[in-house]
Amino acid sequence: MLWCCRTIHMQIGLLHDTIQAMSKAPVTVLFIGLILLLGCTPTGLTVDYDDLVSADRIAAHTRFLSLDMLEGRGPATRGETLATEYLATQFDLAGASPAGDNGSYFQTVPLVGVQSLSKTSLVWRSRQGNIGMKWLDDYVVVNHRQRPNESIDHEAIFVGHGIVAPEFDWDDYKDADVRDKIVVLFTNEPPSQDPDFFGGKALTYYGRWSFKYEEALRQGASGVIIIHTTPTAGYPWKVVRNSWGGQNPYVQLGDKENALSVAGWVSKTMGETITATTGKTLDQLLSDANSPEFQPIPLNLRIQGEIHSAVNLFETRNVVAKISGSDTERKNEAVLYTAHWDHLGVGFAVDGDNIYNGAVDNASGCGILLELAYAFSQLNSAPERTIIFAAVGAEEGGLRGSQYYAQHPSIAMSKTAVNLNYDGFLPLGRMKDISLSGYERTTLAPLVEELASEFGLTLSPDAYPEQGYYYRSDHFSFAKAGVPAFSVNPGTDYVNRPADWGKEAERHYIAENYHQPSDHFDEKWDFNGLAQITTFGLRLGLRIAAAPDLPTWKEGDEFLPARKKSWQ
Predict the structure, then answer these.
(1) pTM of the full predicted structure?
(2) At the fourth CATH level, which superfamily is domain 46-111+313-566?
């Protein structure tokens, strides 16, 4: 009977194949198929966890979700409708119940979209002359005030990394008056080898561009211009251009809520030009910014012009499903699995291709999420705690879907045991190691380490700690709400491959395909490694669901206060 369920599910897993088959099949055949499907309920069979997870099904979901017909899965597009309807249908077929709004699989997320238009024009002015900028080549900018037109005329001041971190005795602003000014800065943070000082090699939230905007607003600045370099950002300029050049989704501002008039980036070349007024090179300024003695430097420039924006209110959707818990008390607590379904939609053409398919980012994670739902539904008995599967939207625009779910959860964040997130997987085959960056900060560390040992997997640290990936994916939304949260990621050591082969493959993906139209499905991919980490996530979730107490963060962690507050 279990074989029956899996076979039929695999056959109907691809929506486009199903539609094609239905158009040719007699009604009688379809009816018999439906009866067989409905009759495939689990019996008292003993279940092997590995047998519950299929690499082929994960591949099929990934292939469909990254087809051109989904047009890059941009929020509030036809591609979103196709993707989210597919996800809801597959959750239903898998046996997971609706956990969205009004008994549906969908949770509506209200947002406002802001897209700067090409007629936007900003110029740097000084006594020596004007410095013009070319849209997308030299700069990208968004008006966080969510207005169709914003006039800009502000002095500019360089503030290093733009960090205020009292616990590290660090203040880049040094009481400089930046009110009504544009602060120019580097992303990232001062380099460190000491884990107790800015996290050592690991990037902290202070290094993220989102923190720079938040701190500048707290300081009273009117706007922020980030100087892009590939080493400080962790990705090339084309990623910034493609990510910021389209529509950016935001939570709608309240009537009295303030925001930045200018939130943008300039290329390294433009950064060198506008900072030349200091008499120093960009490398010298970065070196200065890495010192605690750094002092803000007026650039003797004004930035002037107009930001023209298309502003529209829209809705996107999270797709939420559940397997209800079996324990009378703990069924009101949850283990939360997430993956974002959205990507960049249709954008700037590269080599004639303007569809940003997002096969790796993150059709692959959605394939895993659907497979987890299927695997949980095939267990002989339901877990003690409720299992929630949330395919969240608008991640690419700033984790908006997960942020909204954290604020409007199916089960309260205070009663959510853990968030296990899946985001961006190169299907490169079976692996010898696994990476769960952030697990070591939680009381789940012994359990994770025990399970990895059982799987024969080495627990590898974040391969790129300086990139700050922990703060760049949806689990961060739940960590801020106090929930122990981390992503389940493959390592870089693959079976029957040279030691550095995995790292090199990832480097190539980041350099050539990340946030590019070339992030296509590849028929040569090997999904056995994705099945491997799906099974790992399944068994980890089961153990957490059965644990007597809710996990939390370790003492001293930045997210522990939020956990404690949620329990008050």
Answers:
(1) 0.82
(2) Zn peptidases (3.40.630.10)
